[in-house]
Amino acid sequence: MTDINTLTVSRAARMLQGGECSSEELVSSLVRLIQERDGQIGAYLHLDEAGALEQARAIDRARAKGNVDPSNLLAGVPIAVKDILNVKGQPCTCASRILRGYVSPYDATDVARLRECGVVLLGRTNMDEFGMGSSTENSAFQVTHNPHSLDRVSGGSSGGSAAAVAADMAIAALGSDTGGSIRQPASFCGCVGMKPSYGRVSRFGLTAFASSLDQVGPITKNVEDAALLLEAISGRDEMDSTSLDLEPPCREGALRRDLKGIRLGLPKEYFVKGMNPEVEAAVKSAASLCSAAGAEIVEVSLPHTEYAIAAYYIIATAEASANLARFDGVRYGFRSDRAEDVLDMYENTRAEGFGPEVKRRIILGTYVLSSGYYEAYYLAAQKARTLIRSDFEKAFKECYALLAPVAPTAAYKIGEKCDDPLEMYLGDALTVPASLAGICGMSIPCGQTTDDLPIGLQILGPAFREENILRVGYAFEEVLERAGKSEGRGV
Amino acid sequence: MMDVAGEKNIDVAYVAHLARLRLSEEETAVFQKQLEGIVGYVNKVREIDTTGVEPTAHGRSVQNVFREDMAREGLTTEEVLRNAPAQRDGLFVVPKIVE
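YS: structure for the whole thing
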């Protein structure tokens, strides 16, 4: 019998619909595995066993009465949610001491949309505090270990969601991506992770880090599941004025396993000096496989790529310094006991409540917005952002999608980059440009290092053309599987 | 690290106060060193020729969007206050602001 923990969303849906298992069995089985295995991995901050079982039983009852629409593949499927999205009645800490004890009074729109589909909300996953980090080592509560190698990081900031999916402790998960926080942990943990175009998905109820960059997206075991979840959460929400009223990316049409006649670009600036040669080789071999499957591969140039990290860390921290001003000990969360007067309360609450990376970013963001520096930094970064965006626009005039590495390396050792924040930032060089440009991107497994660590392929598409990257990813999955079989090994 | 004018590029103690963050002396020293390096790095954006380039505030430029101005259910006072560190009579309680 199939180990039901390993199911994808679409296979779980078939088994649930065919009566081969119930949602309650699926939840119980996942909970058992989480209790057995998560002590070593640390993917979950909060497991809602009782709530999940209750939701599962309700869906099972509805299905028994014939009240579940067969076209709804998400009904009864247990999904984990990053601890940055509000789930009514559940804790939402953003992995920060400053929100310890906070209970969400409402659902984020994406969560509400999943609930309407009958998704079972299994629990909240670990992350870098407020999404600030690339390794999930910046959580105030625990480090999330990579399920492929426990002494390595899971990536971040959505490391808990990626590790939960990779370790079969969730059928799928939601993460959020500000500068790579879905794509990079998906790459490190060997999952599929999609960052939708800015405006595709509502940000209402997503705790804000950098409002012009943040997007919620799926972390899944395959491309089909990413498409299913994206379809469920996307669309206009009147609570988020930047969400757009667009047709959802057409799943049926998008998921053609076919690359014939499409042109894919390899941006030459993404193959940087100092990159792990195994990562470079895996991505180039992925491009060759696409070429053999009928795609035309061309080299393209995105000349302003080298400015992306600088522009990103100015813009993201500026926005964060404003967004995180709301954590002042007055309305919610933690308040310092050392509070003689109100200024004392603000300064001590924030000093004791935030971790070092969050403090660094608030200080940097406050600095770049401060009097006399605004034009030199913030405005200059916004102009660089225009140039980065137009680089992509030019490339997409010629190309259907772009293929690139997700990160310069595979998952590194826990503690390896902790002491040097700038080095950690430089690891984001290949994911932040798409965030600044507002385009869509996906990470999909494309190979392993000799140490058996997963390597991700980044597929980038034009804004609001998620169907392009879904099609390339879906076709690539099959191409890679065939190639693996012909070499006589699993992939 | 010094910037072009020969001044320290960021004064962490001063900026932390603007951001309402109380730092210990040790933290101030560590952040000073780290942030000088980071500010030195992000200076790269000033190297680009941006003559005639318009700034981008959002990945997607959006116009003002309005929803209909209609009364609707919001959170109740009780729900809003449930997460407050201190509350009394339907209000948030804070330490004294003026003498």
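YS: worth flagging: Confidence is low (pLDDT under 50) at residues 1-6 of chain B.
IM: good catch. Also Residues 12-46 of chain B form one domain.
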